[in-house]
Amino acid sequence: MSQLAGKVAIVTGAARGLGRAYAEAMAREGAAIFACDINSCDDTVAAIEAAGGRAVGAVTDITSMASCTAMAEQAVRSFGRIDVLVNNAALYAGLKGARFEKLDEAQWDAVMTVNVKGLWQCCKAVVQPMRDAGGGSIINISSLAAVYGLPYGLDYVASKAAVIGMTRGMARELGQDHIRVNAVAPSAVMTEGTEDFFGEKLEKARKVIAAGQVIQRNLETQDLTGTIIYLASDNSTFVTGQTHMVDGGSWFL
Ligand SMILES: NC(=O)c1ccc[n+]([C@@H]2O[C@H](COP(=O)([O-])OP(=O)(O)OC[C@H]3O[C@@H](n4cnc5c(N)ncnc54)[C@H](O)[C@@H]3O)[C@@H](O)[C@H]2O)c1
Fold this sequence. Notes:
This protein is α/β, with parallel strands linked by helices. The protein has one domain (8-242): NAD(P)-binding Rossmann-like Domain (Rossmann fold, 3-Layer(aba) Sandwich), CATH 3.40.50.720.
């Protein structure tokens, strides 16, 4: 059964990694996908079309409000409406970890600009089209790092904790518009981004993370897509303001 038939979903950061996986999974469930990223989403769009789905790609820089507005306008022009926004784009891969007092100030500012301000801007851009569609679902990607308090990455931790706060605040403001706002907080998934993020500490991190979970194996991409589809679909119409941990039972909220 196609759980997202008739829905139009924007996925940010969809050029690779988890964003691409979310786009492809939602397309398989019948959603038309507007895939955007600061890099080309051509491969994502081609994969969706090859599987029989519908997708349009765009280069969008979420740090620019003008770019976010263009993203929403082009999505409406392409598919007529916006039902779902997956706020997945973030600075994650390539971040340089350090004790909090040694973190690079320019990196701190960049993380806040993309992961916090960029997410806010994407929400601002889609909210009116979602109201016009009679409601919608915003899915904000946070991280286990935020609730666990991952050491040596305070810029990233702070940004992903902000995502949870923004999810709660926007959920309260947007309920009257039938727009639901939820966060998803995954533990570490093996993507190119994760390899960059943990570098030579990757294998140790994988073991430590798995050992701290009720389900003692590492998270796979396909463990996440079901939660995204559920939150995008009408199966979650009374669920808003929540942070959904997809972490094998590492942390109970
Ligand atoms: N992979 C994990 O283990 C994990 C765990 C928890 C949370 N997350 C979160 O999931 C999301 C995706 O993770 P990933 O592993 O695929 O990461 P990734 O770094 O590979 O992908 C992030 C994507 O965002 C895009 N992006 C960066 N800045 C942008 C901007 N200004 N405008 C538009 N796009 C921009 C990048 O080009 C990239 O395609 C991120 O929000 C990350 O913080 C990942």
